[in-house]
Amino acid sequence: MSVRAAFEWIQQLRANEGLTSQILATEHPDLEYFVQLGAQAELIFTVDELKAAHKHEWQMRWLLHHI
């Protein structure tokens, strides 16, 4: 389990339109749903690690657009 795996999962979500469509078709997905999907891709992380990865990902995006 790691923040790194969760961060990799976020990157995969951004790159995979089919996966994004699957998530959008799900009624009210919660964070545990994202953890389960990550596990199916052999990326093991917790909800807390996903939250931390998301926070870092947004900070990096902000930096890229404000430098």
From TrEMBL:
Domain of life where this protein originates: Bacteria
Protein name: Nif11 domain-containing protein
